[in-house]
Design goal:
255 residues; alpha+beta; eight-stranded antiparallel β-sheet; 5 helices; 16% helix
């Protein structure tokens, strides 16, 4: 079983990482994979927190035994297996680490972190990899960005059809009814659930942060039925209304 995590940080705009790791790995393995991807110093103290759907911290999994409360069980990264603590797709974790020194978030500029910095992790998918080639049935000529997008957000669903459009783009229809349209460069322009809601991880990852915060403030992150975008705006269909986000001004309106 492979766990696929999407990782973001509130401190660096557009910071994104994707970590694929065996479900039988430890939390220390996950920490090391994250640190390797951004060039962090592995000697600094840190902790993972399992979180609920509102990012409230629940169980702590520490790098070392802090021995603060002998009455509570200590969960150490090197001893704790990911699959023992993470069961559901969409599980949220936060990695908290001491700043100590300025850290370069490669390839971003060096930043000075506050007292503690946090990296948010969401389990996007847990997939048995045997027989999976990452293409999910998408035609071999399809751009890798299209295949990767489908595989990332719809890992358990088969591709029904892949159509080359006259403008050079692509349209992929997933077996669950979702259709995703891409332009000729492989960037999505329209994602239509056709009556189904879109994956919450897709909404979290692909929406501009201001738009996502607005959607989340109304507790609608699980009620997104379609989204389309161009260079000027994003149009989001929710259960009861339509939200328009201006990319140029950042203004949000409802229809």
């Amino acid at each position: 079983m492979i766990f696929n995590f999407r990782i973001v940080s509130d401190e660096v705009e557009n910071f994104r990482r994707e970590i694929k790791i065996d479900a039988d790995s430890t939390f220390l393995d996950l920490r090391n994979a994250i640190y390797d991807s951004v060039g962090y110093d592995k000697n600094q103290m840190c902790s993972f927190f399992l979180c609920d759907g509102n990012w409230e911290k629940l169980r702590e999994i520490t790098l070392e035994d802090m021995d603060l409360d002998a009455s509570e069980d200590a969960y150490l990264m090197e001893d704790t297996i990911l699959s023992d603590e993470i069961e559901d797709e969409g599980q949220r974790l936060i990695l908290v680490f001491d700043y100590m020194t300025a850290v370069a978030l490669t390839p971003f500029r060096a930043i000075r972190l506050s007292l503690f910095s946090e990296i948010a992790c969401i389990l996007c998918s847990a997939v048995v990899m045997a027989g999976c080639n990452g293409e999910k049935g998408v035609d071999g000529e399809t751009p890798k960005s299209v295949s990767d997008f489908i595989y990332l957000y719809f890992p358990l669903d088969d591709v029904e059809t892949t159509t080359r459009l006259q403008d050079g783009g692509w349209q992929v229809r997933i077996h669950n009814g979702v259709t995703v349209t891409f332009d000729s460069s492989g960037s999505w322009t329209d994602i239509n659930g056709n009556g189904n809601t879109l994956p919450a991880q897709l909404v979290f990852d692909e929406f501009p942060s201001t738009l996502y915060s607005y959607i989340e403030s109304g507790e609608n992150q699980n009620n997104v039925y379609s989204v389309s975008r161009n260079s000027n705006m994003c149009r989001v269909l929710l259960l009861d209304n339509v939200v328009i986000y201006s990319i140029t001004t950042g203004k949000i309106t409802e229809e």
